[in-house]
Design brief:
This is Phosphatidic acid phosphatase type 2/haloperoxidase domain-containing protein. The structure is a single chain. By secondary structure, the chain is mostly helical. It has a single domain, classed as Vanadium-containing Chloroperoxidase, domain 2 (Orthogonal Bundle). It has 14 helices and two strands. The chain has a two-stranded antiparallel ribbon with strand order 1-2. The chain is globular and about 70 Å long. The termini are far apart.
Length: 410
């Protein structure tokens, strides 16, 4: 790997280590990758602008900006992980102390700007939404707390406030228009479409399945990543997995600034897609497969993996994947056909080789069916939402709106 490529990918690696060490969910890691990515890109842009050109070092400015975001979000890891990387970058810098200090002032200022905007993110506000458990348990198609969840009490709900989140680039005012077709799209219980999809989850998504192959069982775990806190090689969650795929496929000829622009697009697409998906989830909260199946099909059925603690439709996992996929394919000039290796954080599952980004995306979607967490439509529609968000971000990365938007309209 050439040195120019190493500069940014090494910082991406630090971000992934932070995510893995803290066992952050995909939702939280999406926000962190977005903040680090946009901070580095803004640092390069400003360092090359007329007020600073020749007075600061762009690479060092970006290093200070990334450090400012990571250290202020995760101070417990700063001495052992985040500070060390910055120390070595400063040591390797061959310029004057004056340029070093000016770079630090500019970079840290940009990082603080991003973190401050993040602190004002409405996705951090308290949400009073709770499903109507137990009275609504008999209401078909509506979300209720599920009988089993991932290491949490039955009455726990994961991040309902993200439906009000503050996006980086995709304007929140556009989200109602983008998502309007999906508010009435979810298949209803009793329709032929629902029955067809539910038959597939019944057969392939249960804890005990006579038809799911060992490869499919591993697929459910492989693409879950580190959400359950599992250890091992690879990346941290599906966000980190997509980031690592991107690192492998980016041309070695990219300058650090080219990389910074790409990682800004990628990270912000993760989080902005999450906000759009969450808007639909909590606008029309839909029941999970375990609720429908236990009520009407098999009272003892349980999914292969734990059910996430939020409504089923659309899939957060595939919303993230759709955002990241669209950015990466655009960066690769519309060609998804590359050979690459993917690692997972799930222990004892071998690395997998793919010859197409489409194949990886399709398998990631299927993994949520094998896990028993989603019906197929939730994966397909979430991917479409994420893709639309990613396409917009790719074309509008310079219209940064984080921290300067009105509340989303409900």
């Amino acid at each position: 790997m050439q040195e120019a490529k190493y500069i940014l990918t090494a910082r991406a690696g630090i971000s992934s280590k932070v995510v893995r060490t803290l066992r952050l969910t995909n939702q939280l890691s999406a926000k962190l990758y977005g903040q680090v990515g946009i901070a580095q890109y803004l640092a390069y842009k400003r360092a090359r602008s007329s007020p600073y050109q020749g007075k600061v070092d762009p690479d060092l400015t970006a290093a200070f900006a990334a450090h400012a975001v990571l250290a202020r979000n995760n101070p417990v890891l700063a001495p052992s992980l985040v500070d060390t990387k910055l120390y070595y970058e400063v040591q390797a810098f061959g310029g004057s102390n004056a340029v070093r200090d000016a770079s630090a002032e500019l970079g840290v200022g940009i990082g603080i700007q991003i973190v401050t905007a993040g602190a004002l993110d409405r996705g951090l506000e308290v949400s009073y939404y709770r499903p109507g458990y137990p009275d609504s348990l008999a209401r078909d198609n509506e979300y209720v707390f599920t009988p089993e969840q991932i290491g949490a009490p039955r009455d726990f709900l994961l991040y309902p406030q993200y439906a009000n989140g503050t996006t980086f680039v995709y304007p929140v005012k556009k989200i109602p228009g983008l998502t309007k077709p999906y508010l009435t799209a979810a298949y209803k219980f009793g329709t032929p479409e629902f029955e067809a999809e539910n038959t597939k989850v019944l057969a392939l998504g249960g804890n005990y399945s006579a038809t799911r192959t060992p490869y499919e069982t591993d697929t459910a775990r492989f693409w879950l990543g580190a959400v359950s806190g599992s250890g091992g090689q690879g990346s941290a969650g599906v966000t980190g997995m997509i980031q690592n795929i991107s690192i492998a496929l980016l041309p070695d000829t990219y300058s650090p600034e080219d990389q910074a622009k790409f990682f800004a697009r990628l990270g912000t697409s993760f989080y902005d897609a999450i906000v759009a998906v969450w808007y639909v989830k909590f606008k029309v909260p839909r029941w999970r497969p375990i609720t429908a199946i236990q009520k009407y099909y098999n009272a003892s059925w349980t999914p292969l993996l734990g059910t996430p603690q939020h409504p089923e439709y659309p899939s957060a996992h595939q919303g993230i994947f759709g955002g990241g996929w669209s950015v990466l394919v655009r960066e690769l000039k519309g060609n998804p056909n590359y050979t690459f290796i993917v690692k997972s954080d799930w222990p004892n599952i071998p690395d997998r080789t793919y010859t197409s980004l489409d194949d990886a995306a399709n398998e990631a979607g299927a993994s949520r069916i094998f896990a028993g967490a989603h019906w197929e439509q939730a994966n397909r529609d979430a991917f479409a939402i994420g893709k639309a968000v990613g396409e917009y971000i790719y074309d509008n990365i310079d219209t940064y709106v984080y921290g300067s938007q009105d509340r989303i309209a409900w």
